[in-house]
Design brief:
It contains 27 helices and 22 strands. With 755 residues, it is of the alpha/beta class. It folds into four domains: 8-178, GAF domain (Beta-Lactamase, 2-Layer Sandwich); 181-202 and 325-425, Glucose Oxidase, domain 1; 214-319, Enzyme I, Chain A, domain 2; 434-750, TIM Barrel (Alpha-Beta Barrel), CATH 3.20.20. Strands 7-14-13-9-10-11-12-8 form an eight-stranded mixed sheet. The protein has an eight-stranded parallel sheet with strand order 21-20-19-18-17-16-15-22. Strands 3-2-1-6-5-4 form a six-stranded antiparallel sheet. Helix 9 packs antiparallel against helix 10 (298-319). The longest helix is centred in the first third of the chain and has 24 residues, at 214-237. It is elongated. The structure holds phosphoenolpyruvate and magnesium ion. Magnesium ion binds at residues 569, 609, 630, 632-633.
Length: 755
């Protein structure tokens, strides 16, 4: 190897020629090992490919016994080749046979070789195989020689990742690069998606690894690095982003790496060794990734992500390819994989083709989650290292209810999920068939079912579900998915579309309900120890009259001539309602003064979410046009259980005497005052809870669009009079009740009610 013929550049050029030849994958690999051995003046060059079962298999060799190709194999960690794969690091030995890990394979005819150098074949930090060169002589290998082999291994990594070598594997053998993976993340949006991987930030396919002209490639690299640095600086300067805490940290880390001289120098060296600018970025990224993968420190691993992102941006800079996959040709069943993404970015994809989204980060309350739910697609977050495990186009299953992700699933898993999806689809079909049928009980009570919504993408659901309008329009969602406060004109536009979509059916808007877990990244709010009990909802908007007035103005203007129903969240004291009403009246006067059209009629309501209001109901009922029970918050405060705490989620039952008594009391007080009352919390969307609400007297409930079908099916099978006979005594008595849920379930079972 010391007398290598022309160095790595010549070698890479020869390899490029071979890559372009129209030969079989085996022939190509056979030619590659011959070229490497000749060029490196080595007697042996071999390629071992890692299989899914953890064995390295000989795929090609020059110099060893060729009859052993596809036969000789060793476990990862076994022998020198296995050690290179395990450590994901090069190993160079002047006398291999003296190394403690040396393992003798007599069938290979290795006995006369002493000099050994093995480099891992890496892609995105994952080991795919090992490239080995051997010499008869005992000799030392230089850094440059090892580097050259590492560069060459990129070419082979590309062949493996492309699936070319899987195609020549023996029957039943699966290569590590094609192995099935099962990840357990956090279920964010409850749907199941079967489809194919689309990387949100596509990996750039490097078309040319080998430089034609080193000078030109160095200049391209330099230019790309300069513009990347500028881009990162610009991002940091954007005032809005700069305020967003976490985001800023990431950007600062970006800046640090982007300006890191050794990062740039390593890439320049790789270009000098004969790679294109793109090839150099890929090589340095793969090396760094492999090195950092061995580090368990979570902070440093996080920085590995940053470096990866940065390398991607650099490649994009060099190739001029688009930033995200949203505008490329999507498969018809796309599952989007990303480290994280903004809500607007998800909305950018073609809804028809979206089946799911998998994020390495993400949480229940992240805004992209809200959008995924609104779109009705499966979403899983906290899926560790998923980006490194997938290749675009891979088959993948996302189970948003369990948080499971199956990458390249085996046939049995896939068929189990196909059955699950079919079952869901069959159910959906039954529900669709109910769309135009009334929600009427067997004994003739008609119930109004409405949907909860908050985004433009929710609007088609009104028609699709056959709901009678929108019982809760969460106006804060528009604010949450935006990157700055939506302008009044943008709010107006949305509200108009909502009213248009509902047609003659009513829409109940809720004034901004931010604070608590609903955070606007662009709004500066002091951290609170108990945000659920903090400065949120009506408390916040009454303190920020500018914000409240502009929203109310937009709502009043959007309604022009139509009915406007508006309710206020978290009313704790009747005076809060009075103050909110005063703001509405002031805005009405403003419209009048400026001759703007007013709503045809106006109905103002209050949400029942805070226990204190339960003892002011007569006074509240006197003031409002309607009431709506926000059972999510109301139960959170009644049980003193954080609604987001999964550990406590099952601890107390909503179908228990205290809750039923409260719900009954609210209904009776509203009825006494002749004020309509509805329930719009999650309670209303679960069939078993929903029928109990009806037994308590409620005749109007609002829920997530996906719940309309199941709830309507239950109502249509229900004899309400019979159920009341069971529920009334449970609510009226003073003694501690037994298991109410079990009693209702048994009733449903004997009466054939699907709950
Ligand atoms: C509720 O609290 O029940 C409710 C409907 O409001 P949100 O879930 O938006 O807090
Ligand atoms: Mg609430």
């Amino acid at each position: 190897m010391r007398n290598s013929l022309g160095g790595p550049r010549v070698l890479l050029r020869r390899l490029r020629e071979v890559m372009l030849e129209r030969v079989s994958a085996q022939e190509r690999l056979d030619k590659i090992v011959v070229i490497i051995a000749a060029n490196m003046v080595a007697e042996v060059c071999s390629v071992y490919v890692l299989r899914a079962d953890g064995h390295l298999e000989l795929y090609a060799t020059e110099g060893l016994n060729r009859s052993q190709i596809h036969l000789v194999q060793m476990r990862i960690g076994e022998g020198l080749v296995g050690t290179v794969a395990k450590e994901a690091q090069p190993l160079a030995l002047s006398d291999a046979q003296r190394h403690p890990s040396f393992l003798f394979f007599p069938e290979l005819g290795e006995e006369m070789f002493h000099g050994f150098v093995g480099v891992p074949i890496l892609r995105a930090g994952n080991t795919l195989g090992v490239l080995v060169v051997q010499n008869k002589a005992q000799r030392a290998y230089s850094e440059e020689e090892i580097e050259a082999l590492e560069t060459i291994s990129l070419v082979i990594a590309e062949m493996i990742a492309s699936g070319e070598l899987q195609a020549i594997a023996r029957a039943g053998v699966i290569l590590a690069s094609r192995r099935a993976h099962h990840l357990k993340g956090m279920g964010l949006s409850d749907a199941v998606g079967l489809g194919h991987v689309v990387l949100h930030e596509p990996r750039i396919v490097i078309k040319a690894l080998v430089a034609e002209n080193v000078g030109e490639e160095l200049a391209r690299l330099e230019e790309a690095i300069t513009s990347l640095r500028k881009h990162v600086d610009d991002m940091l300067e954007q005032a809005e982003l700069a305020r967003a805490g976490d985001h800023r940290d990431v950007l600062e880390a970006f800046r640090m790496f982007a300006n890191d001289r050794s990062w740039a120098r390593k890439m320049q060296e790789a270009v000098r060794s004969g790679l294109t600018a793109e090839g150099a970025v890929e090589k340095v990224r793969s090396d760094t990734r492999a090195r950092m993968m061995r580090i368990s420190d979570p902070y440093l691993r996080e920085r590995l992500h940053d470096l990866d992102d940065l390398a991607n941006r650099l490649l994009r800079q060099l190739s001029g390819e688009p930033a995200t996959a949203a505008r490329i040709d999507l498969p018809k069943d796309a599952i989007i994989i990303a480290r994280n993404m903004g809500p607007a970015e998800l909305l950018d994809y073609d809804r028809e083709k979206l089946r799911g989204v998998v994020l390495e980060e993400g949480s229940h309350t992240s805004h992209v989650t809200i959008v995924a739910r609104a779109l009705g697609i499966a979403a899983v977050g906290q899926a560790k290292d998923v980006i490194g495990l997938v290749e675009p186009g891979d088959a993948i299953i996302v189970d948003g209810s369990s948080g499971e992700v199956h990458i390249r699933p085996p046939a049995d898993i896939e068929s189990a999920y196909v059955a699950k999806v079919r079952l869901r689809a069959r159910r959906q079909k039954t529900y669709r068939d109910l769309r135009d049928k009334p929600a009427i009980s067997l004994d003739g009570t008609l119930i109004t079912l409405q949907i909860n919504a908050g985004l433009l993408v929710d609007l088609p659901h009104v028609r699709e579900t056959g709901a009678r309008g929108i019982g809760l329009f969460r106006t804060e969602l528009q604010f949450m998915v935006a990157s700055t406060f939506p302008r009044i004109s943008e709010q107006l536009e949305l509200y108009k579309s909502v009213l248009d979509a509902a047609g003659d059916d009513p829409v109940t808007f809720r004034s901004l309900d931010i604070g608590g877990d609903k955070i606007l990244p662009y709004m500066k709010v002091e951290p609170e120890e108990n945000p659920a009990l903090g400065w949120r909802a009506i408390r916040l908007t009454l303190d920020r009259p500018g914000l409240m007035r502009s929203q109310i103005r937009a709502l009043l203007m959007a309604a022009r001539g139509r009915e406007l129903r508006l309710m206020f969240p978290m009313i704790t004291d009747v005076r809060e309602f009075d103050q909110a009403k005063a703001v509405v009246e002031r805005e009405l006067r403003f419209l009048e003064k400026h001759s703007h059209p007013r709503p045809g009629s106006l109905k103002l309501g209050a949400m029942i979410e805070v226990p204190a209001i339960l003892w002011q109901l007569p006074a509240l009922v006197e003031r409002v046009d309607f009431l709506s029970v926000g059972s999510n918050d109301l139960l959170q405060f009644l049980f003193a259980v954080d609604r987001g705490n999964s550990r406590l989620a099952e601890r107390f039952d909503s179908l228990s005497a205290p809750i039923l008594k409260v719900l009954k009391h609210i209904h009776s007080e509203a009825q006494k005052g002749g004020v309509p009352v509805t329930v719009c919390g999650e309670l209303a969307g679960k069939p078993i809870e929903a029928i109990v609400l009806l037994a308590l007297g409620y005749r109007s409930i609002s829920m997530a669009p996906t719940s309309i079908g199941p709830v309507k099916a239950a109502i249509r099978a229900l004899n309400l009079g019979e159920l009341r006979k069971l529920v009334d005594p449970l609510v009226e008595g003073d003694e501690v009740q037994g298991d109410i849920r079990a009693a209702i379930k048994a009733f449903a079972a004997t009466h054939g009610i699907p709950v």
